[in-house]
Specification:
alpha+beta, single chain, binds 3-iodo-tyrosine, NADH Oxidase
Length: 230
């Protein structure tokens, strides 16, 4: 929970792991990676097949290589496996979601969500192999209790979470980004300190045999829509 704050001298070392692919190899690799990412689909239906902790750990290590403001790595990934904790998370999350879908979200938001077919039932919080709760560390607490500001926290945690989702997909796992709001109850259940803000729950595991996705989820913007050149 705490960490020592050390100041290190600037000490450059030669760039490690320099890539030396030809242009043709780079294009082939980029194309292959796009094909892999086209096969990622947010999944809301999981079965209870277990997933080894060592697979999850490798994915977390990959996420931990993310760039971050001043290299402060202001993220924490809390793994929840215990049935008791998961039951509590489900019951708290479903209570929030019932209020959300009953009208708290507002008409516009609920209309926008309609093509996704989501509702307040979240059985996957108990069935999927793992829940990974992503926390953002607003500041770093030194061993002596001193507080040190972190930088670009939402950006850093967003990048690391994107890399985690990518790593999980690459490993062959399905994932759902779940964001009950508000999520304050997660600090207590995951035993995380108050200065850590729960950002989302990643539900991770194997898809159910009859899992479906909303057809609308396949609509991705074109390259022309998501990019421009000046
Ligand atoms: N958190 C709710 C609602 C929800 C909101 C958005 I934005 C989504 O893309 C999907 C769902 C839920 O999990 O059902």
């Amino acid at each position: 929970m705490t960490a020592s704050v050390t100041t290190r001298e600037y000490q450059p070392i030669p760039l490690p792991h320099r890539m030396t692919h030809s242009d043709a190899e780079m294009l082939a690799r980029a194309t292959d990676f796009y094909a892999l990412m086209q096969q990622r689909h947010t999944c809301r239906f999981f079965d209870d097949r277990p997933v080894g902790r060592e697979i999850i750990d490798q994915c977390l290590l990959a996420a931990g290589t993310a760039p971050s403001g001043a290299n402060r790595q202001p993220w924490h990934f809390a793994l929840v496996q215990s049935p008791g904790a998961r039951k509590r998370i489900r019951s708290e999350a479903e209570a929030e979601e019932r209020a959300f879908y009953a009208g708290k979200a507002g008409k516009d938001w609920l209309e926008t969500l309609a093509p996704l077919g989501t509702d307040s039932d979240k059985p996957f919080l108990e069935t999927a192999a793992w829940l990974i709760v992503v926390f953002a560390q607003r500041y770093l607490v030194g061993d002596d209790g001193s507080r040190h500001k972190n930088y670009y926290v939402p950006e850093s945690v967003g990048i690391a979470t994107g890399m985690l989702i990518t790593a999980l997909h690459n490993a062959g796992l399905s994932c759902l980004t779940h964001t009950p709001a508000p999520m304050g109850f997660l600090n207590e259940i995951c035993r995380r300190p108050d200065h850590e803000k729960p950002e989302m729950i990643l539900v991770v595991g194997h898809p159910a045999a009859d899992a479906t996705i909303p057809a609308a989820a396949l609509d991705k913007k074109t390259l022309a829509e998501i990019s421009s050149t000046v």
